[in-house]
Amino acid sequence: MVKVYEIDGVRPVVHPSAYVHPSAVLIGDVIVGPRCYIGPCASLRGDFGRLILEEGANLQDSCVMHGFPLEDTVVEVDGHIGHGAVLHGCRVGRNAMVGMNAVVMDKAVVGAESIVAAMSFVKAGMVIPPRSMVMGTPAKVVRALSDDDVAWKSFGTRQYHELAVRSLQTMREVDADTAVAPDRGRIAFDTSALHTPKS
C-alpha cells in the first residue's frame, strides 16, 4: 500500500500506470504522472509547494523533493533522478538527469537533455543550458553532451520505464529464502547500449 498523506485538504495524485514503492512517502500537493517510477524510501513533501513528476520520470531510492510555498518543483518528461538526490524548488528539464547524491537548489533550471554529475551542488538560480554536462561544488558546465551521451541517458530512463511495469506486475512482499537454490535465476537485463559518459 502506497503511503500518501493529505494535508490542509490536499492529497497526492498518482497515475494508475505509475509505480510508487510502499516505503516512499508522498505528502500533500504531489502529482505523479503516467509511467513514473518512485523508488524505496523517497520523500515527496508537498506540504509547502507543489511537486510534479511528468510522464516517464523516475525518482530513485532515498531521493527528496520539497520546495517553497506557491512554487512548483518539477521533473519534466523522462527526467531521471539518481539515488539520494535532493531537489528543492527547482525544474529538471525533459530527458535530463540528476546524478546520485546531487543537490539542485531553488529556482535552478536543469536544461533539457543535460546531466548533473553525481555529488554535484547546483546553486540557487543557476540555469543550465540544454545538453550540458555539469559537475562540481558549486556545479559548473564542463562540456556539451554528445548524441551518444544523450542516448546512454535515454537508455537508462527506458530501463526505469520498464521497471515501473515490472514492479506493478511482479513486486510483492515475501519471506526471504533461507538458502541459495542451485537453480537460482537472475534478473534479465539488456546491456547492449550501456556506456558511461566521459566527464
What do these coordinates show?
The chain has about 200 residues and is mainly β. The chain has a domain at about 10-140: Hexapeptide repeat proteins (UDP N-Acetylglucosamine Acyltransferase, domain 1, 3 Solenoid), CATH 2.160.10.10. Helices cover about 10% and strands about 35% of the residues. It contains 1 helix and 20 strands. The strands form 2 sheets. Strands 1, 2, 4, 6, 8, 9, 11, 12, 14, 15, 17 and 18 form a 12-stranded parallel beta sheet that branches. Strands 3-5-7-10-13-16-19-20 form an 8-stranded mixed beta sheet. The chain is globular. The mean pLDDT is about 95.
Secondary-structure map with pairings?
Layout: E1 3-5, E2 13-14, E3 19-20, E4 25-32, E5 37-38, E6 43-53, E7 58-59, E8 64-66, E9 72-75, E10 80-81, E11 86-88, E12 91-92, E13 97-98, E14 103-104, E15 109-110, E16 115-116, E17 121-122, E18 127-128, E19 132-135, E20 140-144, H1 147-170
Parallel strand pairs: 1-4, 2-4, 3-5, 4-6, 5-7, 6-8, 6-9, 7-10, 8-11, 9-12, 10-13, 11-14, 12-15, 13-16, 14-17, 15-18, 16-19
Antiparallel strand pairs: 19-20
Total helical elements: 1
Mean pLDDT: 94
Distance between the termini: 40 Å
Main sheet specs: 12 strands, parallel
InterPro entries: Hexapep (IPR001451), Transf_Hexapept/Carb_Anhydrase (IPR050484), Trimer_LpxA-like_sf (IPR011004)
Protein name: Phenylacetic acid degradation protein
Pfam family, one: Hexapep
